Every structure is written in structure tokens, then in C-alpha cells.
Amino acid sequence: MFLTPEEMDLLSGSQGRATQKAMQILVALGEIYGAKRMIPVTSAQIAGVSYDNLGEAGLQFLAELAEGGGRVRVPTTLNPAGMDIENWRALGIPPDFAEGQERVLNAYSRMGVTLTCTCTPYLTGNLPKYGEHLAWSESSAVCYANSVIGARTNREGGPSALAASLTGRTPEYGIHLPENRIPNLTFQVEARLVDSSDFGALGKVIGEQIAATKSIPFIQGVESATLEELKSFCASLATYGGSALFHMQGITPDASTCIPPGEQLTINQSDLEKAYTSLTDAAGDEVDFISLGCPHLSLGEIERISHLLEGKHVKREFWVTTARATKLLADRLGYTQIIEAAGAKFAADTCCVVAPIKGRFTAMATDSAKACYYAAAKNKFKTIFLPVEKVVQQALI
Ligand code: F3S
């Protein structure tokens, strides 16, 4: 692998132990994947923030980099943490967990990482431009950045995203390369897409079709899609298909330059209905937890929830998960007050998947196909998957 004199210098350790370690990680990755060189990145986004996932071993890795002089060289933001940084007690987070989580955040902060704690960095200031190379690791955001924005990033692990941040580089392989961004399977969508949960269901259906082959889908037949719908679709496609890139005719920026692949599958209404059914294994009266905001909610989605909850009172634990910056806007606009007056709780900086709530609830209702997957796999909850309006109704009965 070719390294420039500057990269050789970083690797030699002359700029500190942490930068050297970061360069070693990137060179090893590049060699595994056959990269010919490093390329500059304009931003990094790091997953692997929750103390629930990192534990002491992960924390030690971060502390060593911070103590070894590691400092970000490009704007770098963080995925959700295991708790609301300001309001963790109200969400039932144990104090010893909070202490571990604070040490994790402190290590990132010492390296200059911005503690946004969100999986929607593109809504809160880390918004790449078309064609930029990035090192992002949250799977839904990677899919969004590649597909909806037209930036270029592999799905990094937390350590490799941090290594890219500390050096400003990443090895050039995978979907940084134009030849690896060409679609090879067409999906003709003939189903009605009304709510963002429909896009989540669509992502599950397509994801499951491409999971084994890792095909890049070219999607036809979707007439329009909002930011929130694409956010939901990306989360689902990445979860069920491991996909980091799709093209959607008339919607995503690179689709117009693609030749639609000859091999074609059709998605109809019954496929979507089956997806809804497959993500629902709880009875309504079993639901003791409601969670909205996977991926983190936009301000518009919070406004909608506030309208749905205005003057009502929820009867079950109800989390509204979003980025801190988005919540601050919701505070100013009065949405927070309406939602909290209804008895729902904001869980900023975190989410129902990365918070340490395994076994705390029996069944969760949500409008997120991704959240259903992890609720079952990680937290052992049953799930009910519904459009947002019906999820809110579920909380009121
Ligand atoms: Fe975000 Fe947590 Fe869902 S990180 S995409 S809200 S699982």
C-alpha cells in the first residue's frame, strides 16, 4: 500500500502514540481489503459509544488513545450514548452505568470529538456534501450519506472511524471506489408508501432479498420520499440487508447516472403487509414500553408527536429519542412541554437500543423496523410495529 511521506511520518510515531496506533489500524485495514492508498476524509462519525456495548475494555482503548495525545483532525461526531446525559435518572439508568458512560464521553471529548450523541448527524451539523469521502460508522447514517447525499463512506467500525478521525484519512477500498457503487438488482415497488414506517417495512423487504448476495439495489416506482422516510428506509435496509448504498430512481442523486440492472424483483402491497406482521409478536395489552425515534427524530417528527399527544395522557413508559440539539429546538418551540405534559419522556443523546434496558420491559410498540430487530435480538422484548399515529394510540389505551 502506497503511503505518502506525511503518512509514513504518522506511522513512525513522531506525532504521538495515539496517531501512530490510528495509522497502524488503517494500514492493517487497507492491506486486508487491498487498498492501494489512503484518501482524505472530510468528517468522521463514531459508533460504539454506549458503555453497555464498550465495557471496561473499550473504555481502556479510548483512554489510551486520549492519553497518547490523540486529537481529531476532521470534524467528528458521536453516535448515541447509553443514556440521556442530562436526564438519565428519570429514565431509570443506574448510577454506576452513568459513571462508566461519563468516562467514555470524557475520553472522546479529550480527543476533540463533538459529543452530539446522535445517529442522525446530518440533522445536527455534520452534513457532508455530494462526493465527499467520509469515515462514518452508524449503519443507518452510512446508508443515508452514501445514497441520499451521494457522499462516499464504508461502514466503519468504531475504532476505524476514530482512527480516520485522528489521522484525517481512510484506506481507499469498498464503496469509496466508483466501480463498487454500481447497482446490480432492480426492485420495482408497486406498494403504497404512506407513513415512514412503510419505508421501514420496504427496507426490511428489500434488505432481506439482498442480505445474502450484498447486491446494491436500484429501486423504481417510489414517487416521492421525505427526509424522514428515507431515514427510516436507510435504517431498515442497513439492518436487514447489511446495505450501505442504494439508488432510488428520481430520488437519490446518483440514480440518474445508473443503468437499471436487468434482473428485477417486484415488491407489492402484500410484501409490505407481511413485513408488518413479521415484526409484531406482542398483543396490544402486553405493551409496557413505547419508543419513537429510531433513527433519532427530526424536529418535524417531534412536532407531529406533540400534536398527537396534545391534551392526552400516556398510560405506559413512552420514550421520545432524539439528538440533544433537536430537543433544544423542540424546547424553544413548545413541543417538549406538550409531550412531557402528556407523560412521555424525552430520551435525548440515547435510544431504546443502546440504553441498558434489557429485560426491563415485556413488549415495545414502535414505528421503527430497525428498533424491532434490536428490541428482540438485544433486549429480548416482544414488539408491535405500527405507523406513528397508531403507536401513539397504543400508548393511550
Ligand atoms: Fe439510532 Fe439507536 Fe436506532 S442509534 S438508528 S436510534 S438503534
Q: What does this 3D model show about the protein?
A:
The protein is of the alpha/beta class. It folds into three domains: 5-178, Aconitase, domain 3, CATH 3.30.499; 182-277, no CATH class; 279-396, Aconitase, domain 3. Helix content is 41%, strand content 15%. It has helices at residues 5-12, 17-32, 51-67, 95-110, 139-149, 158-167, 196-210, 227-241, 269-278, 299-309, 324-333, 335-341, 369-377, 388-396; strands spanning 38-40, 43-46, 76-78, 134-136, 169-171, 185-189, 217-220, 247-248, 264-267, 287-297, 317-322, 345-348, 363-366, 382-385. A five-stranded parallel β-sheet has the order 12-11-10-13-14, sandwiched between helices. The chain has a four-stranded parallel β-sheet with strand order 8-7-6-9. Helix 10 links the parallel strand 10 (287-297) and strand 11 (317-322). Helix 1 (5-12) crosses helix 2, helix 2 (17-32) packs across helix 3 and helix 2 packs across helix 6 (158-167). The longest helix is centred in the first third of the chain and has 17 residues, at 51-67. It is globular and about 65 Å long. The mean pLDDT is 97. The site of FE3-S4 cluster (F3S) has 15 residues, from strand 10 and helix 13.
